[in-house]
Design brief:
The chain is an all-alpha fold and 261 residues long. The chain is built from eleven helices and no strands. The protein has one domain.
Length: 261
């Protein structure tokens, strides 16, 4: 297949994805299919995130002691490490949201420029993330149901921040998307969540067994642990894309295509 043929094939596939997203409610299989295709299309950018941002975190993590079961910290570096890791996770998630929609719209983007674009949104994403956690946690204290309800109606707040330039009104934007179809959205999110857990367990349980067997070889065990962490991160990338595809589907159906600037 020539370069020209590849270009036009990619363009046609992109238009087909866009038409499906804006004209019909996707089946779960469509979510996975489109998400996987975008994952492959963005593999170079995602690999950049993985090696430049996540690999150092995965390596440093091997030297950070686990928190004391009684609530203490054996090392003063534990809290700073987790804060930095959390911020990097937020930055990458915001960037993946943007790369996903750009892929749908057949707009090219490079990882470094996408990171620059989300830099101004990290603080608001962090603050709203903390607020989201507090609301869901407090809601879960009351027979769990309020926490689940809040978790579903506000599930798309990070996508609203990354893609629709929302700030604190990101919660309202998410609520409007879910309005009138709570149970449909709840079911889809449940399927995606269970699928993520199953896939992570399918990958990590055998790796964990191998790591225990090779425990007498510290270097090999170290390498396996780092690789395991990176595999989990890559799986998370995929599901962030799939989740973003679902957001875009709901958003295009309710609000139409956004103006491109």
């Amino acid at each position: 297949m020539s370069i020209v043929q590849v270009f036009f094939y990619s363009l046609v596939m992109s238009q087909q994805k866009l038409e499906r997203l804006k004209n019909s409610y996707l089946d779960i299989s469509d979510n996975f299919e489109i998400g996987w295709n975008i994952f492959l299309e963005q593999k170079n950018n995602l690999l950049w995130f993985l090696l430049i941002l996540n690999l150092p975190i995965a390596i440093i993590e091997q030297f950070v002691p686990d928190p004391d079961p009684q609530g203490g910290f054996d090392s003063p570096f534990i809290i700073p490490f987790f804060i930095v890791a959390m911020l990097i996770g937020i930055i990458i998630n915001l960037a993946i949201h943007i790369l996903t929609e750009k892929s749908i719209m057949q707009e090219s983007s490079q990882a470094i420029f996408t990171l620059k674009k989300v830099s101004s949104k990290v603080l608001i994403a962090l603050l709203t993330g903390i607020l989201f956690f507090i609301m869901v946690f407090l809601g879960s204290l009351f027979f769990l149901i309020p926490g689940i309800y809040l978790g579903v109606i506000f599930a798309f707040f990070t996508e609203a921040i990354a893609l629709r330039n929302c700030q604190l009104d990101a919660f309202n934007y998410s609520r409007n998307l879910v309005k009138g179809q709570f149970w449909k959205v709840f079911g889809r999110l449940l399927i995606l969540g269970v699928s993520l857990v199953i896939l992570v367990l399918f990958i990590t349980v055998p790796i964990g067994f191998i790591s225990v067997v090779l425990n007498n070889l510290p270097i090999i065990s170290f390498i396996i642990s780092v690789i395991s962490s990176l595999i989990i991160v890559a799986i998370n990338y995929l599901f962030v894309i799939i989740f973003t595809v679902y957001f875009l589907n709901l958003d295009y159906l309710r609000n139409g295509l956004p103006q491109r600037v």
